[in-house]
């Protein structure tokens, strides 16, 4: 059944940091409709698809008026008339236009086409990708935010937990919510609460990485769970943010690559850390390889900025033994098809797959559908607070229900 793209419109909407972003809406000749909104990162890799922002003084240069105009005047005419079910054909055109119209514009358009394709067949987006997923992705949930999401109050960006013992996603959320509350209670005992970081995790009112890790362990225990058995810790080091030609600068200390990875190895042996993302900077291939060789037997080394959802980079990094899992973000590559190729490259090389949202998000729930439809091992969308995060978690609850209740993906 073909159903051609009949109309494309776009508008400026707002993200969770109060910044403008682009929403694209696609309509088909049968009357089906799909929408997609581009998310935005704060700790972005230099090889990511470039966003088109207006520049100048308005909103710190972040406005997207030009992107909205181009979605209507350039993207619309070029994808109108194509079968909405041929995502690859649409995405090939979008990928070619990327440098001209921006990765934010192509991301929103590509997601809109995916949702319109589902609507055209009367099925949800996850079912467009896989009609019968075998599991639900395991949620990796932020408890304390740091790094670029908390004014660099800590060097490390994401202090997360990964529920191990629950077999259903609803139970996993319940346990994580208990841990979030428990960590909040410990923080309240220590002094005034200072709100949340960009992804809804507690503000990092901590003295450093180990203090944050101690807090997580205390919260897990206070929730009546056993650290490392019921609930593991996941870190996104986001090391690109504090990497330089001289090494890694943390507080008043500076580490060379070998010392930095040795320090992370020490933490991975002292705490129940199951996954560690971007332990080295985006250009530090030696650091990533060293992380896999040194700590890869205790924690899964995940590539984010290092891979930027690029199938070729994933292929090469797997060959080099520089990663053990790939983080997948559609807007790093600019299209659903580009990200699907990255997932396929990860799978072909026996890497785990983590589908991730960005720190600047909206009510768009595409990531829940992509993580389910691509059979991701883990899904990462920030904390268990704030509407732009719970929109995704709650959608995963609905998807699991629609699927009749699936087991969670095996823990790493
Ligand atoms: O680094 C990351 O993995 C993401 C999500 O936490 O952050 P950002 O969207 O700011 O790149
Ligand atoms: Mg990251």
TrEMBL record:
<dbReference type="Pfam" id="PF03952">
    <property type="entry name" value="Enolase_N"/>
</dbReference>
<feature type="binding site">
    <location>
        <position position="157"/>
    </location>
    <ligand>
        <name>(2R)-2-phosphoglycerate</name>
    </ligand>
</feature>
<protein>
    <recommendedName>
        <fullName>Enolase</fullName>
        <ecNumber>4.2.1.11</ecNumber>
    </recommendedName>
</protein>
<comment type="similarity">
    <text>Belongs to the enolase family.</text>
</comment>
<feature type="active site" description="Proton acceptor">
    <location>
        <position position="329"/>
    </location>
</feature>
<keyword id="KW-0479">Metal-binding</keyword>
<feature type="region of interest" description="Disordered">
    <location>
        <begin position="30"/>
        <end position="54"/>
    </location>
</feature>
<feature type="domain" description="Enolase C-terminal TIM barrel">
    <location>
        <begin position="133"/>
        <end position="411"/>
    </location>
</feature>
<keyword id="KW-0456">Lyase</keyword>
<feature type="active site" description="Proton donor">
    <location>
        <position position="199"/>
    </location>
</feature>
<feature type="compositionally biased region" description="Basic and acidic residues">
    <location>
        <begin position="45"/>
        <end position="54"/>
    </location>
</feature>
<feature type="binding site">
    <location>
        <position position="304"/>
    </location>
    <ligand>
        <name>Mg(2+)</name>
    </ligand>
</feature>
<dbReference type="Pfam" id="PF00113">
    <property type="entry name" value="Enolase_C"/>
</dbReference>
<comment type="pathway">
    <text>Carbohydrate degradation; glycolysis; pyruvate from D-glyceraldehyde 3-phosphate: step 4/5.</text>
</comment>
<dbReference type="InterPro" id="IPR020811">
    <property type="entry name" value="Enolase_N"/>
</dbReference>
<dbReference type="InterPro" id="IPR000941">
    <property type="entry name" value="Enolase"/>
</dbReference>
<keyword id="KW-0324">Glycolysis</keyword>
<feature type="binding site">
    <location>
        <position position="329"/>
    </location>
    <ligand>
        <name>(2R)-2-phosphoglycerate</name>
    </ligand>
</feature>
<feature type="binding site">
    <location>
        <position position="236"/>
    </location>
    <ligand>
        <name>Mg(2+)</name>
    </ligand>
</feature>
<keyword id="KW-0460">Magnesium</keyword>
<dbReference type="InterPro" id="IPR029017">
    <property type="entry name" value="Enolase-like_N"/>
</dbReference>
<dbReference type="InterPro" id="IPR020810">
    <property type="entry name" value="Enolase_C"/>
</dbReference>
<keyword id="KW-0963">Cytoplasm</keyword>
<feature type="binding site">
    <location>
        <position position="358"/>
    </location>
    <ligand>
        <name>(2R)-2-phosphoglycerate</name>
    </ligand>
</feature>
<feature type="domain" description="Enolase N-terminal">
    <location>
        <begin position="5"/>
        <end position="129"/>
    </location>
</feature>
<dbReference type="InterPro" id="IPR036849">
    <property type="entry name" value="Enolase-like_C_sf"/>
</dbReference>
<feature type="binding site">
    <location>
        <position position="277"/>
    </location>
    <ligand>
        <name>Mg(2+)</name>
    </ligand>
</feature>
<comment type="function">
    <text>Catalyzes the reversible conversion of 2-phosphoglycerate (2-PG) into phosphoenolpyruvate (PEP). It is essential for the degradation of carbohydrates via glycolysis.</text>
</comment>
<feature type="binding site">
    <location>
        <position position="359"/>
    </location>
    <ligand>
        <name>(2R)-2-phosphoglycerate</name>
    </ligand>
</feature>
<keyword id="KW-0964">Secreted</keyword>
<feature type="binding site">
    <location>
        <position position="380"/>
    </location>
    <ligand>
        <name>(2R)-2-phosphoglycerate</name>
    </ligand>
</feature>
């Amino acid at each position: 059944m073909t159903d051609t793209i009949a109309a494309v419109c776009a508008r400026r909407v707002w993200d969770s940091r109060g910044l403008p972003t682009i929403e694209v809406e696609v309509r088909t000749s049968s009357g089906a409709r799909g929408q997609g909104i581009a998310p935005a990162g704060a700790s972005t890799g230099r090889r990511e698809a470039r966003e088109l922002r207006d520049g100048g003084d308005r909103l710190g240069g972040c406005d997207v008026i030009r992107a909205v105009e181009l979605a209507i005047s350039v993207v619309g005419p070029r994808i109108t008339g194509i079968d909405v079910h041929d995502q690859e054909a649409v995405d090939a055109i979008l990928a070619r236009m990327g440098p001209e119209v921006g990765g934010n514009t192509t991301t929103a358009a590509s997601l809109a086409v995916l949702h319109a394709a589902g609507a055209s067949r009367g099925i949800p987006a996850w079912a467009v990708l896989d009609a019968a997923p075998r599991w639900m992705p395991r949620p990796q949930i932020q408890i304390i935010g740091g790094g670029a999401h908390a004014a660099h109050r800590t060097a490390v960006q994401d202090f997360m937990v990964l529920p191990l013992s629950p077999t259903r996603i609803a139970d996993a959320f319940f346990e994580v919510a208990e841990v979030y509350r428990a960590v909040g209670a410990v923080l309240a005992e220590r002094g005034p609460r200072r709100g949340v970081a960009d992804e809804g995790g507690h503000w990092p009112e901590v003295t450093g990485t180990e203090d944050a890790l101690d807090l997580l362990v205390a919260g897990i225990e206070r929730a009546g769970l056993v650290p490392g058995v019921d609930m593991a810790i996941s870190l996104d080091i986001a090391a690109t943010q504090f990497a330089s030609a001289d090494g890694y600068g943390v507080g008043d200390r500076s580490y060379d690559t070998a010392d930095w990875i040795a320090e992370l190895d020490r933490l991975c042996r002292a705490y129940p850390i199951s996954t560690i993302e971007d332990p080295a900077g985006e250009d530090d291939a030696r650091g990533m390889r060293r992380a896999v060789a040194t700590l890869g037997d205790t924690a899964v080394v995940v590539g984010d900025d290092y891979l930027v959802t690029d199938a070729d980079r994933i292929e090469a990094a797997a060959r080099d033994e520089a990663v053990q899992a790939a983080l997948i973000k559609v807007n790093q590559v600019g299209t659903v098809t580009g990200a699907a190729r990255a997932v396929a490259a990860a799978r072909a090389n026996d890497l785990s797959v983590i589908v991730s949202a960005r720190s600047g998000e909206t009510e768009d729930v595409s990531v829940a559908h992509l993580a389910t439809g691509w059979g991701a091992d883990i899904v990462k969308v920030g904390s268990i607070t704030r509407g732009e995060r719970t929109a995704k978690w709650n959608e995963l609850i609905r998807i699991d229900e629609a699927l009749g209740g699936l087991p969670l993906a095996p823990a790493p």
